[in-house]
Amino acid sequence: MNFKKLLKVIFAAMLAGIMIFAAACTTTPTPDVTAAPEATEAPTEEPTEEPVTPMEEILAALASTEFKDCKNVILYIGDGMGQNHVPATDAITGGRYDGKLVIEYLPYTGIVNTTCTEGEPDSASGGTALACGYKGKRKQLGLNNKGEEVMNMTELAKSLGKSAGIITTESIVDATRATFSVHAKNRNDESKIAALQIDTSVADFIMGGGKAMYDLLMENDPSYVQKLTDNNVTWVTKWEDVLSFNGEGRLIATMTDDYWFEDADTHPSLPEMTEQAIKMLSKNDKGFFLIVEGGALDEVAHNCDMMELTRHMTSFDQAVEIGVRYAYENKDTLIVVTADHETGGILPKEEADAYIKKNEKTNQYIAQEEWCLTNAKLHCLYEAEKIAQSKNPDVDWDTLPYRFTTIAHTSNKVNVWAYGPGAERMQNEKLKSFEIGKFLGESLSGAEFGSTDKNGVK
Ligand SMILES: [Zn+2]
Fold first, then answer.
1. pTM of this prediction?
2. Would residue 214 count as lying in a domain?
3. What distance in angstroms lies between residue 120's CA and the mean position of ligand 1's atoms?
4. Does residue 419 lie in a domain region?
């Protein structure tokens, strides 16, 4: 018997032992002779569970839902999720419901220009537009074009007596999601962003990765250990500590050092976090604002890893499903799904091949943003593809129907999908990102929010 077989035999014997033990433990207890006769005679009733509406039925009814006034807003951001991320996922995975993702069933859709005042957006300007309803500059978090602090959605929700939460699969101090918790001039100063999240953020919770930056802050400035207490912040690094959080004060959870891969078991999945986040926030009768971010989508697109991207997209869509079900059942929740910008220049395979061939000599398909310029030589498209392929050796990459054309961000347009009170305002092919931010704030407050200027600057 080889070692593997031996292990199997040992495992089977252990399993049998556990089952016998379990059976012994679950034998019917001796009836209580002092109990009233009716109680002992009545057949034991199975606990009745609320019938769960099948998701297919909900999806079919989305377009005809009658809504109440808007009480809650859930914003989903797929970081770097461009217009081809969705069809690429459908084509490679077969979709989730009748060949499509839940996102595609949301009844109102628009096309969004994500450019910032300096042209091509980064996650900081893209995030600020959605969080504050202003068109800003690259690198700036929660500031308008002049560098002045402008109110974000989290602050708006709290000012209305509502609850607010932020969850992401990325580091919580990284740009997009940080625009919902702090105001800062430079997105790269991540240790400062961690400090600002402790000192000034009003979000009831911020959950995701980013432990490394929090560790660094505590090491560089040990006074922050005390400042956690002073600011009534509970900082945890494990999912079980999130689940057992008593709800007093604010919660910050950094469950990985940086961003995370969907298949690791050291952290919750995005759908698990979404379920928990809605459970925590919906305790407030006045309502809530929640941002659910597929943050790591951007990382895997920079890596040109199409298979990892489709896994993240599927998980992101499962998180959307949880929100859509909640909105369908409660009729007072607005769901908006969009992106801060596009990453990877994904195109159908033939178009991508032609584009790459045409631009090969000039290398235009290589990086435009700072991070990518530094890494372009080492980490250009071909290199990234080679690494991605080595991680997925069973996949025949030549047969994949979509391909990346850059390792960088692009200024390609993105989509917005919406469901809920007032969602028809998103049915527009000429939206600008900041107009989505304005719409979110105005839906939550019933009053004007964000820039009052048609260009989103003032
Ligand atoms: Zn990026």
1. 0.86
2. yes
3. 12
4. yes
